[in-house]
Amino acid sequence: MYRFLLSVRWIGFAVFVIVLAAVCTRLGFWQIHRLEHRLDQNKIITSHLKADPVDLTQVLEPGDEVDDQTEFTRVRATGTYDVEHQVTVKFSTRDGAPGVDVVTPFVLSSGEAILVDRGWQESENTVARPVVPAPPSGEVTITGWLRPDNGAGSDAIRPVDGQIRAISSVGFAKSVPYKLLGGYLNLRSEDPPAAKKLAAEPEPERGQGPHFFYALQWWFFALLAVVGYFWFARSEAKERRNPTRIDGFADSSPPR
After folding, report:
1. Sign of the CA dihedral running 22, 28, 32, 34
2. pLDDT along the chain (256 residues), means of 10
3. CA distances to 42, 71, 89, 209 from 205, in Å
4. Distance CA 206, CA 50 (A)
5. Residue 249 exposed, middle or buried by CB count within 10 Å (0-12, 13-18, 19+)
6. In 3-state terms, what secondary structure has residue 233?
7. What pTM was estimated for this model as a whole?
8. In which region does residue 138 sit, left (phi positive, over 0), alpha (psi from -120 to 50) or beta (all else)?
């Protein structure tokens, strides 16, 4: 009764089901690996945020990039803000409210600089550049945590009319007369303080995310594919045994 499974049509169907189930199973394990990576990253972030700030030059040297191991490291640095090259990150939101992040280059005594996201302020959701509070003048000591460059396209990270859409030292490099360190810094404190503070970046969310449930979904799809194959095979076998079956039910009408 099941010899039809050796036909070209059913062999092709079986190959399709095997491939589909294998892909879904692999995607499920990929989500589990992403979950494990996120949990490991959460441990690193928590460790960094609990540690005392270290000197910026101990963590980041010219040519270095901020990566998963150094992101959210708390650092301190002394230098001066370069307000002339300050920009705002347009179309930023907090709790559904429109606003901008204020990014100001911070020039170190070595002559190099790092971009500093000084914080966020609410503003109208327009392309116009808003008026933002000035940073402290003169020599300032700041603390903050490191963040990696945004990987957005050049149109988003290159300053235009004092505005950008994403923060990246790569896009900023040609706009300033000094060398920029990689990544940028989310400001947490400064001494002396600014006359008017901006809203600091909140601590990162360290939950598990949806990866575990995504994995269950992919494994369910794999199981569904296999079960579906056997269900269709069983249905066709019944049809071959009883050709009078209609939509899975035998024709039980009385003879005339």
Report:
1. positive
2. 82 93 96 93 91 93 90 95 94 89 95 95 85 93 96 91 93 93 95 93 87 95 94 85 58 48
3. 9, 14, 21, 9
4. 14
5. exposed
6. helix
7. 0.77
8. left
